[in-house]
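Consortium newsletter contribution from the modelling node. Members have asked for a concrete example of what our holo predictions look like. Here is one, prepared for the adenosine-5'-triphosphate complex that several groups have been discussing at recent meetings.
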Amino acid sequence: MNYSTINRITPYIFLAPAVIIMLIALLYPLGYMIYGSFRDWDPSQAIGESTFIGLGNYISLWNDPNFHESLTVTLKFAITVVFIEMIVGVGLALLLDRNLRGMSLLRTMFILPMMIAPVVVGLIWRYMYHPSIGIFNQTLEKIGLGSVDWLGQHALMSVIIADIWQWTPFIFILSLAALQSLPRSALEAARIDGASGWQQIIYIKLPLMMPVLIVTCLLRLIDAFKVLEVILVMTEGGPGLSTEILALRISRTATEFRELGVAAAMSNYLLMLLLILTIIMLAYNKIQELQAVRLRMAAEKEVD
Amino acid sequence: MPKIRLDGLSKRFGDTEVLHGIDLEMEDAEFTVLVGPSGCGKSTTLRMIAGLETVSAGEIYIDERPISRLEPKDRDLAMVFQDYALYPHMNVAKNMSFALRLQKRPRKEIDQKVHEVAEMLGLTNYLHRKPAELSGGQRQRVAMGRALTRDSSTFLFDEPLSNLDAKLRTQMRAELALMRQRVHKNMIYVTHDQIEAMTLADRIVVMHDGHIQQEGTPEALFKQPINKFVAGFLGTPPMNFLDATIESDGDSTRLSGDGFSLCCDQATLDILADYSSRKICLGIRPSDLIYDPQAAADTALTLQVDIAEYIGAQSVLICHCGHQKVMVELKSDTPISLGEKLTFRLALEDLHLFNPANDHAIPGFVAVESTDSQ
Ligand SMILES: Nc1ncnc2c1ncn2[C@@H]1O[C@H](COP(=O)(O)OP(=O)(O)OP(=O)(O)O)[C@@H](O)[C@H]1O
Ligand SMILES: [Mg+2]
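And here is the predicted structure:
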């Protein structure tokens, strides 16, 4: 073997252990799940004993109204929370992006919810929503507005509020980072050009933050589709199917209904949904990169 | 154009005061250049005029109207930044028309104005490019264009040429000088490049450590600097400073120092009457030292050459006279060799005299009524 071959394969040798672990840890369960999704599989059976039923699980899910319901709830939940979180998070970032005394303390406080374990968040909110002893209803009653059936009639809205409380900080810190990396002098130029505070936000800040905002939004969306613990603790999907998001339905299908094959197929539907979002995100990044390269090339050509 | 006046303008960042009471009055449509070494407070002064920094004490008047509490947009001025500060997401036309669009001017008027300015700056072909697609010089022009499309009465420039390479800078400097003749506006220009200052200014304001040292026309500052700082700051190569004492022996009086002894005339003596037997500091511009092998010893300096810096037709010689360093200019084709001793003639009237105790020029020797400093 000569030096150049050795040089060429060295990096791969160093990468190999990590790649092997990745394959085992990531691809094996994934493959297992895909394999299982084509079978009529009860938890009491070993996978080998289950019968192969082709696309049976996928087809029956496609026609299952409960699955549709669950998908609708998931979409409603994910889109609503991300929409509101984006507005509130970006709004807060715009509001708090200034150098006042105590601002850094305030910022730290804002990101606390994100650091609490989801199960704990679920518990906290469940108590706060409690019909008689919860703080919300007690307060409402004290000021004479009557109580609200938080986790009953308005269950979806209640879990949405809890999620917004927990995840707005994520968007807040990313937006704040984006804001603080904006070119200061361009903003000063805008002030001199006569832009008011609002005009600076609309014409300068938001357009310049857009790449970060789009990626943040997609990340959040991917995450919102997978939410489980908080809702599990708060409502367990109920009442009825009103808060039964996909992740919850998958876990119930596997444990309660004992249909591992169907659960696997459902997971694959979710996976495909997330894959589409991820691909959009990667494509967006790629387009940005290509555009930057094109701009740079054009500028360089000019200089020659 | 409205008159701008600064009255006791001070600036503190936390506990440190960086500007200590700037008083300055700019004439109508004057090109005022603020120069000074890095960190002396030029940008801070300009940014306070622009409204980007708050005023700690003092006031800024435009046409006798105090404006220090107004927002930048209400001050009727345009600014060109050192890093151009273009809006990266807008093309050249959009960048240039941003202010007009905010003012909701009619579309036709905006288009016309943008094209007019683009024409003047040679940007017509680039109107649809984004800033990232332009070279440094073109970006600089766009920044200039953005300021020009607005009909502000005052233009502020913060080192607009310092990010350009030497050749482009010379070219843009000439273009600025041309634009200056066409545009009848107040202009305040910050630079640390004294050549820019000398070539562009109607009036130069030399700053140092948050104080104005001296202001006046480029010629006045060059010929009659009121202290050693101004004398040493303006002019390349910089002025030479030599320590000397006034010595009288019988009827002749001399300015002598390490390695030289110059004969003094009566006029100079009269001025120096108060300083007799005291030490003084001589300031000699390199260009005032004329190479002359025949010169008499008491009207000349004899210098030993240490280094010759070739810069084209002229060379700069770094020499020493006794223990003091002296720079002179010499035609490059003069045959000399390193270590050689050369004689340079010096006219007494070209001498600048400073009081070494406080570095001020000796009054009387500076023929101007100094507007003053510190
Ligand atoms: N935001 C700030 N906070 C604290 N100190 C500052 C701030 N801005 C400027 N200074 C200080 O004020 C002084 C003047 O700064 P300024 O930027 O006006 O200098 P300058 O004359 O423009 O220098 P240069 O030629 O390097 O641009 C410097 O000593 C600087 O450290
Ligand atoms: Mg500066």
